[in-house]
Design a protein that fits this description.
The protein is built from 14 helices and eleven strands. With about 300 residues, the chain is an alpha/beta fold. It folds into two domains: about 220 residues, Aldolase class I (TIM Barrel, Alpha-Beta Barrel); about 60 residues, no CATH class.
């Protein structure tokens, strides 16, 4: 997996997933300092807040880090300006096309890695000149596509030539080795870092993550074409019921408005949106980020050695 490490200037081929309201400087700086690529989730931020987050990460580490851009944000142009002004080396993108910003970002020596859910979009991103692609399967937490990680990653790799980072349901070194066998150059991991000690989630949310199994999560928004993987609670029960009773997009958006922030900062585990992926079934303890990354790499080395010796 040296290809993605060389491209991004990181020690380990591990990108921390951009989790809304979770991927703040405390987590991001810790991931980058430990040798991965920490990613600030800028969704919902003002330009000033993003600048503050970037500057706080710089206080924690001199190693590369990234900012994730939700391209449908109304202030997206301001956020891109901040990224360029602050010299952020990498951006990941979602919720739209980076077409209008790639030239300016590349001129500022910023690497661009879009997160994609299918082969069609992967081909479009390669045609735009992106530096690498993050292929995210529906096992991931939060906003998801319709294709699972294994078939998605393999088909994307056979369809484009840029480096591919695999995402969705990856939580240990054996998973890293598995997607490397498919041809992936690195991995993006979210839920494992959600459970870390540097994550801002509080006791209630954290305990639910650690107690859950691989069958626990539910997906809201499938009928309307906006699927989101979360832990079930009173809010999701009501959302899914209304969704299949024919409620309007507007009514459902009102129900979910501010739900992720409530989950993270108010520890509202009943009315908040507890976004996480199917990998939580084997996440049973909260560790600090450095321990998580070192364990991932040791598991990866042991899995490779075992495979060779079989």
């Amino acid at each position: 997996m040296d290809r993605i490490c060389q491209l991004l200037g990181i020690e380990y081929p591990i990108i921390q997933g951009a989790m809304a309201n979770v991927s703040r400087y405390q987590l991001v700086g810790a991931v980058s300092e430990a040798g991965g690529l920490g990613v600030i989730a800028s969704g919902g931020m003002s330009a000033d807040e993003l600048r503050r987050q970037i500057q706080e990460v710089k206080k924690m580490t001199r190693k590369p880090f990234a900012v994730n851009l939700m391209l449908q944000m109304k202030n997206i142009e301001e956020l891109v300006e901040v990224i360029i002004e602050e010299g952020v080396p990498v951006v990941t993108t979602g919720a739209g096309t980076p077409k209008n910003f790639i030239s300016a970002l590349h001129q500022a020596n910023v690497k661009v890695l879009p997160v994609i859910p299918n082969v069609k979009i992967a081909k479009k991103m390669e045609a735009l000149g992106v530096d690498a692609i993050i292929a995210e399967g529906q096992e991931a937490g939060g906003h998801i596509g319709q294709v699972s990680t294994l078939p998605l990653v393999r088909q994307v790799i056979r369809s484009v030539d840029v480096p591919i980072v695999a995402a969705g349901g990856i939580f240990d070194g054996a998973g890293m080795l598995a997607v490397e066998a498919l041809g992936a150059s690195g991995v993006q991991i979210g839920s494992l870092f959600l459970s870390s000690k540097e994550s801002p989630i509080k006791e209630g949310f954290r305990n639910l993550v650690l107690q859950a199994d691989e069958t626990t999560t539910v997906v809201t928004g499938r009928r309307l074409g906006h699927p989101v993987r979360v832990l079930p609670n009173k809010m999701t029960e009501k959302y899914i019921r209304l969704e299949y009773e024919g409620a309007s997009d507007e009514d459902l958006m009102k129900l979910a408005e501010g739900a992720m922030r409530r989950a993270v900062y108010e520890d509202d585990v009943e009315e908040g949106s507890l976004m996480c992926g199917q990998s939580i079934g084997l996440i049973t303890e909260s560790q600090n980020v450095d321990a998580i990354i070192q364990k991932l790499m040791e598991e990866y080395r042991q899995a490779r050695l075992k495979l060779i010796n079989q």
